[in-house]
């Protein structure tokens, strides 16, 4: 069973999400929250597998709530729900530690699939959407300080040549099947490479690996 916490300041929106989730035999809603501060408190109390997080809420918004939940070091992963697919808050949410984002008007099956993907430990941002998101917000990537740059270079240095190739492909928004086809590998082998890459660079999920690829220069804003 995958457990969820639903966070949204609109009661009807929460009710809609709850009805959808509870229609599935493998998903269960542990609770709801109508603001970011309450979301943090309830995530700590309930320890859900996935937090469905609205971004725009009064007081503590979804980005800050996401940051606090992830910083607490619990088991919960955050799936951010935005109004627009390139909402200016989406990138900030990913930087805060969210495992991905979906638009609120996504098809029910897309939301359910996204919940399951995030619960399984992967990111839910579609490759093409990742590419568009990072292209739009590339100028907001932080410039590493000397110490941070050294640490980043050290993490990059522990990757094998093949792992660097796979990480570059991840940074370009390729999915596992596309990477497998490009490098003539079994998809299971690609999954193994991705898991090792995430562990070596200290990335929580695929989204953070994309950001790492940008920050290290493996992938440039023009996609090369």
How would you sum up this structure, described in words?
- By secondary structure, the protein is an alpha/beta fold.
- It folds into two domains: 2-125, 3-Layer(aba) Sandwich (Rossmann fold), CATH 3.40.50; 139-215, 3-Layer(aba) Sandwich (Rossmann fold), CATH 3.40.50.
- Helix content is 54%, strand content 12%.
- It is built from eleven helices and five strands; from the N terminus they run E-H-E-H-E-H-E-H-E-H-H-H-H-H-H-H.
- It has helices spanning 11-22, 36-46, 62-71, 88-95, 108-119, 127-137, 146-157, 161-171, 176-183, 187-201, 206-215, and strands at 2-7, 27-33, 50-54, 77-82, 101-103.
- The chain has a five-stranded parallel beta sheet with strand order 2-1-3-4-5, with helices on both faces.
- Strand 4, helix 4 (88-95) and strand 5 (101-103) form a beta-alpha-beta unit.
- Helix 2 (36-46) runs parallel beside helix 3, helix 8 (161-171) packs across helix 11 (206-215) and helix 9 (176-183) packs across helix 10.
- The longest helix is centred in the last third of the chain and has 15 residues, at 187-201.
- The chain is globular and about 50 Å long.
- It starts with a strand and ends in a 9-residue tail after the last helix.
- The relative contact order is 0.10.
- The model is unreliable at 143-147 (pLDDT under 50).
- It holds the Pfam family Response_reg.
- Residues 152-217 form the HTH luxR-type domain.
- One of its GO terms (molecular function) is DNA binding.
- Keywords: DNA-binding, Phosphoprotein, Transcription, Transcription regulation.
- Residues 3-119 form the Response regulatory domain.
């Amino acid at each position: 069973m995958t457990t969820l916490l639903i966070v949204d300041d609109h009661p009807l929106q929460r009710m809609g999400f709850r009805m959808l989730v509870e229609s599935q035999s493998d998903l269960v809603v542990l609770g709801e929250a109508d603001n970011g501060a309450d979301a943090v408190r309830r995530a700590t109390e309930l320890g859900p597998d996935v937090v469905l997080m609205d971004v725009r809420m009064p007081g503590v918004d979804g980005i800050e709530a996401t940051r606090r939940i992830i910083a607490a070091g619990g088991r919960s992963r955050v799936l951010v729900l935005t109004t627009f697919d390139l909402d200016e808050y989406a990138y900030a949410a990913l930087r805060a530690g969210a495992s991905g984002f979906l638009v609120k008007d996504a098809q029910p099956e897309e939301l359910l699939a996204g919940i399951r993907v995030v619960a399984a430990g992967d990111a839910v941002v579609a490759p093409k959407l990742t590419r568009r998101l990072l292209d739009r917000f590339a100028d907001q990537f932080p410039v590493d300080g000397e110490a941070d740059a050294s640490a980043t270079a050290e993490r990059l240095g522990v990757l094998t040549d093949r792992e660097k190739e796979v990480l570059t492909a991840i940074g370009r928004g390729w999915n596992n099947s596309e990477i497998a086809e490009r490098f003539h590998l079994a998809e299971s082998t690609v999954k193994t490479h991705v898991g090792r890459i995430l562990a070596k660079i200290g990335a929580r999920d695929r989204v953070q690996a994309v950001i790492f690829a940008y920050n290290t220069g493996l992938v440039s804003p023009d996609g090369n």
